[in-house]
Amino acid sequence: MNEWIDNLFRYPELQSMGHCQDAGNRDLGLGWLYYSQIRLLKPKTVVCIGSWRGFVPLILAKGLLDNANGGKLHFIDPSLADDFWVDRAKTLKWFENFGLNNVEHYLATTQDFIEMPAYKRIKKVKLLFIDGYHSAKQAKIDYEAFEKVLTPDSSVFFHDSIRKFASGIYGEDKVYNHSVYSYIRKLKKRHDLQCMDFDFGSGVTLVRKVPTP
Ligand SMILES: C[S@@+](CC[C@H](N)C(=O)[O-])C[C@H]1O[C@@H](n2cnc3c(N)ncnc32)[C@H](O)[C@@H]1O
User: How many separate domains does the chain show?
Assistant: First the structure.
């Protein structure tokens, strides 16, 4: 794992985006939380929506590889921030750099993805990571797109979910306010869900179904 982390942190772009990484200490920060859920749940099917340079999908796919049970990551990102995910061969190579060939990338928004045949093939999602467009409206679309295929023991993460933040990631002329926290407030009112905020970095919320007694 140490060697893998050293390789990951050779790239400065994988040390940011609010996950509390500390490259000097080989510390994945919130990445440990994501990785631990993968190791605990041992999912066969994981979905990740949105990523800047892949820190989260890389950690999730590494957990799946270490579980050694053939788990696969479905990564949905239309590459709206820039062209990083546009080229399919380059995207595959990027994951392969880290020893990972268990990632299927879809160059699509969630809205478009749910119209694709691949969407209908996705079943029994044990871990869903939502980190796409950070409005309450989009977070709801992302969650509801997969809610019906979540397993009873599934874990759902929402990143950038705790506070308002003005983001210029889509260009300084397209600054928008993160409002995922207001969707999380609604989920917290549901009696069938447990929601835990982790106020580290730019914040992440873990949502799980209340276990049947
Ligand atoms: C830049 S990331 C946010 C940073 C993130 N916190 C991280 O750690 O990488 C947001 C990503 O969401 C993607 N995105 C935006 N709208 C989306 C949508 N409707 N469906 C899926 N992905 C979307 C963008 O292409 C972008 O790559």
Answer: 1
